[in-house]
Amino acid sequence: MVATLDSRTAVRSAAAPSAVLADPARVIVVDDDPELRTLIAGFLRDNGLNVETAADAVELGALLDAGGAALLILDVMMPGEDGLSVVRRLQGANRPGIIILSAMGDDTDRIAGLELGADDYLAKPCNPRELLARVRSVLRRRASPTTTVQARRFGEWTLNIVTRRLGLGNGSEVPLTDAEFRVLTALLDRPQSVLSRDQLLDAARGEGVEIFDRAIDVTVSRLRRKLGPSDPIRTIRNLGYMVTLIPEPIVP
């Protein structure tokens, strides 16, 4: 039987062997369930992360004021300010990464959390190793790059940032219009996050580029035709679009 983070079993027994990081990222687990907070924090600490806990948004605020964090694991249903409100409030370039961990597994709640700016969403109960994998993935994605990214690989495709062309593994290339390149880049910048039409409209506008409202749908449709059967773009009804794959940066 796979251990889950709400099973109240010995979650630490599922920990994969891992060397303690020399400078572990600070992670804050925010949940009003004290037993679950302890289980999650203990498991992540056993896997080399620097973890603190908070019971609600007030305690979280005190911890952030005292030194910030690289990542929050945030419950939705908490007394006082709820998790989605916290996500909405923590906007800006310097906000920590956010993984929503909640019993509210409905697609509407998941999409709402991602639309508000959360980096990932995991429904309870969950496998602790899956949570650990997602924590590490978000931390990697948010790490400041030390070299210039020349291309991004996603699935069988590679987007060349310099030539603005899509390449396949067989060496063939597909040219993109300026608007198509800008929209695809915006989606790859925030993988697995929903971008509204207004956000993509802002991204698509460049010098000498005129694009309006529903023309975004046409641009995305053309992109999807070029990507073919392996197209990772998904339409989120009434909200916008998202890329389901996490791109791999390619550096010189």
Spatial separation of the terminal alpha carbons? 44 Å
Strand order of the largest sheet: 2-1-3-4-5
Whole-angstrom Rg: 20 Å
Whole-number mean pLDDT: 79
Structural class: alpha/beta
Q: Which CATH C-level class of the largest domain is it?
A: Alpha Beta
How many strands?
12
Q: So, CATH architecture of the largest domain? A: 3-Layer(aba) Sandwich
Considering DSSP H and I runs of 4 or more, what fraction of the residues is helical? Answer: 25-40%
Summarize the biggest pleated sheet.
5 strands, parallel
GO molecular function, one term: phosphorelay response regulator activity
Domain Response regulatory: 26-139
Domain OmpR/PhoB-type: 149-245
Keywords: DNA-binding, Phosphoprotein, Transcription, Transcription regulation, Two-component regulatory system
Task: Please describe what this structure looks like.
By secondary structure, the chain is an alpha/beta fold. It has two domains: 11-142, Response regulator (Rossmann fold); 151-250, Winged helix-like DNA-binding domain superfamily/Winged helix DNA-binding domain (Arc Repressor Mutant, subunit A, Orthogonal Bundle). Helices cover 35% and strands 20% of the residues. The protein has eight helices and twelve strands. The chain starts with 25 loop residues before the first strand and ends with a strand. It comes from Polymorphobacter multimanifer. Keywords: DNA-binding, Phosphoprotein, Transcription, Transcription regulation, Two-component regulatory system. GO terms for molecular function: phosphorelay response regulator activity; transcription cis-regulatory region binding. One of its GO terms (cellular component) is cytosol.
